[in-house]
Design brief:
This protein is α/β, with parallel strands linked by helices. The protein contains 16 helices and five strands.
């Protein structure tokens, strides 16, 4: 008698999907069916594990075990190479740029026509389907509507609304949710020297975002930066103070983005020059200059995405402050994301109403959307936001 899939959330390829029993059962059943749906859409907020779920599903589909109930063993060569991203029949697409270009989309369509070389399926994972431009999505649509019988598409996005209706209507939905805090604080395997209290605090502060929790648990600087951002509302007492806070936040984001890619950009340029056999001195041939220019353009786009992603994370942390305030105002605040700030949060919650807090949450979310979807000046947008966060008394000063 086979073991129900929902009893194996922490074994095999499903080990990373702790607290996702329903998703594990849904995907495990499909992997065992022998005839899975040809297109899937994995959606969930950052940290929900949507990409992990897609990779685990791909591994289960390509698993070498012949017994259906054992698919997704996690130990065979196919499972290990899929999880490592090196399986010959797996194409895993992610981007560090702002968008996935139409040329990249066309390449995926061509790749989908190839027959599997070693496994049962050719699987294409698009981790950033929400970053695909409309023209690129339309290129994929035909391939998803009428895929070759051996190809399975796994698209990932924050929400169904981030994917065009014609595309998502042809995909089977999978909706991982952020894992419970304990699953994040106590992951399988060694903690790497992180004490349980620090891991628990990081999981709470990250709101169950696994990647952010790991960074907060192991990086003192990251914890300090988050603490400064979360405490920002406590420092807003005047319009001039709000303007200074906005400038500080923008400088922090730009410095973080710059440091993230400065060394990597230099290494990529040096590697390209070495590959091209570029002369150490003198004028480069036009063909070499063109390739270097393309690399620099890609690096610029990647830096912009990193900057936008950092702003998004910073504003998400800021939202957690007002989320806690709202919980105190309407629900007693039994669970606060920023528990160490409870005394300050309680005092802050008494100053204004829940309606005021909701308006501030809407303001921050509006800025998040504008920074991602438009070319608005980050400094101007965040200055306007911080001024809007002031209380009526502070505005009157």
């Amino acid at each position: 008698m086979s073991t129900p899939v929902h009893e194996l959330p922490a074994s095999g390829v499903w080990a990373e999907l702790r607290g996702q029993e329903q998703v594990v059962e849904q995907l495990g059943r499909a992997a065992r069916s022998g005839a899975p749906t040809h297109a899937w859409l994995f959606t969930g907020p950052p940290g929900s594990g949507r990409s992990n779920a897609a990779r685990a599903f791909a591994a289960a589909l390509l698993c070498e075990r012949t017994e259906l109930e054992e698919r997704g063993c996690g130990t065979c060569k196919a499972c290990r190479t899929v999880l490592a991203g090196t399986h010959a029949d797996l194409t895993n697409v992610t981007t560090e740029k702002v968008t996935i270009s139409i040329e990249e989309a066309r390449e995926l369509v061509r790749k989908a026509q190839d027959k599997p070389s070693t496994g049962r399926w050719r699987i294409i994972i698009v981790e950033d389907a929400d970053r695909m431009q409309e023209r690129g999505t339309n290129v994929l649509l035909k391939a998803i509507e009428e895929p070759p019988p051996h190809t399975i598409w796994l698209l990932c996005a924050p929400s169904p609304g981030d994917v065009l209706v014609p595309t998502r209507s042809r995909c089977r939905p999978v909706g991982p949710r952020p894992p419970p805090g304990q699953a994040v604080a106590d992951p399988p395997g060694p903690r790497g020297g992180v004490d349980p209290a620090t891991a628990e605090a990081a999981a709470r502060a990250a709101q169950s975002h696994i990647g952010v929790a790991k960074r907060l648990a192991t990086d003192d600087g990251a914890r300090e930066r988050r603490n400064q951002i979360v405490r920002l509302p406590l420092t807003l007492h005047s319009v001039s103070g709000a303007m200074r806070a906005a400038a500080d936040l923008v400088k922090l984001a730009e410095a973080e983005a710059q440091s993230s890619f400065e060394q990597r950009d230099a290494e990529e340029r040096a590697a390209l020059l070495a590959t091209l056999g570029a002369p150490e001195t003198g004028t480069m041939p036009p063909s070499m200059r063109a390739q270097i220019r393309r690399l620099e353009e890609d690096q610029t786009r990647r830096a912009k995405r990193s900057r936008n992603d950092y702003f998004d994370r910073a504003l998400t942390d800021l939202i957690s402050f007002y989320r806690d305030v709202l919980m105190l105002q309407i629900a007693g605040g039994r669970f606060l994301v920023n528990e160490p700030l409870r005394p300050e949060l309680e005092e802050f919650a008494r100053r204004d109403t829940a309606e005021d807090t909701l308006l501030r949450l809407e303001t921050i979310n509006g800025v998040r959307m504008r920074l991602v979807t438009t070319n608005v000046s980050a400094l101007l947008a965040i200055e306007a936001m911080t001024v809007s966060l002031l209380s009526r008394k502070d505005l009157d000063r």
